[in-house]
Amino acid sequence: MLVGALLLALAFAGLGIDGARMFTARRDLQNQADAAALAAASALDAEVYRASAGEVTQLDPAAARQAAARVLAASGARSDLAVAVEVTPERVTVGLRRSVPTTFLRIVGMREQQIGASATAAPRTG
Amino acid sequence: MTRDERGTAIVELAVLGSLIFGLLVQAVVLFGTLHRATLATSAAAREYGRAVMLADSEADALARGRLVVAQAAGNHGLEPEALVATVEGRRGRGELLVVRVRTSVPIARLPFVGEVWPSLGVPVESTHAVQIDRYRGFG
């Protein structure tokens, strides 16, 4: 009975540890997505802005993607990170996905878990 | 196996089981402490980055940064000086700033005794990068 109780305690502790690791990884991913989206949203198309005498503010897709990539690289993004940046003239959405290897959940056949986060930002003037 | 020997085995099992269970509880508590430190450094790095990004001057950035790091530490049950924050990069429009927040989690801590070996700790660090708005004004 004692051995059974210890195994049960170990199983629940392991579940908690793997769950906490995923929670932390998901939180870090969200932080990275937020920062990348904010940076990308400041990549305005200067030519359109000047041509419209400051009336129209829209994003430059290439510059927005570059800004997002720059922030992700500086924040120590992992090499296996899947990045999707969708840019429209009005807003940018940064989506990030990666897998988190498990330690204790391998016992039940779950070797890794996919986690994802996304953030949308839009430029605002004034 | 005689009756006396059976009794001895039960006592050994109880002692050994308690010891293993105690170690397991200690490991869980240690992991919880590490997890708390990870959350604290992550929150502090994010908030510090935001504070520096919105600050109007170096002095303002430093004051805001210290405040939010102390708040993040307090929110996670840590002493304000437990978190050490540094910022790399130049404050300017479109510039990239990298914030690092570090702490050390003591691993040789026993219940009712406290830290047995204060210098023995696991370093925990979080990094957060932010870009200052290209079109913002500085006051």
Question: Helix and strand layout, with pairings?
Answer:
The complex is a heterodimer of chains A (126) and B (139).
Chain A: H1 2-40, H2 46-51, H3 61-74, E1 82-87, E2 92-101, E3 112-121
Antiparallel strand pairs in A: 1-2, 2-3
Chain B: H1 3-54, H2 58-75, E1 84-88, E2 96-106, E3 109-110, E4 114-115, E5 121-131
Antiparallel strand pairs in B: 1-2, 2-5, 3-4
Helix pairs in contact in B: 1-2
Describe this structure in words.
The complex is a heterodimer of chains A (126) and B (139). Chain A has helices at residues 2-40, 46-51, 61-74; strands at residues 82-87, 92-101, 112-121. Chain A is of the alpha+beta class and 126 residues long. Chain A has one domain. A three-stranded antiparallel sheet of chain A has the order 1-2-3, with helices on one face. The longest helix of chain A has 39 residues, at 2-40. Chain A starts with a helix and ends in a 5-residue tail after the last strand. Chain B has one domain. Chain B is of the alpha+beta class. In chain B, strands 1-2-5 form a three-stranded antiparallel sheet, covered by helices on one side. Chain B contains two helices and five strands. Chain B starts with a helix and ends in an 8-residue tail after the last strand.
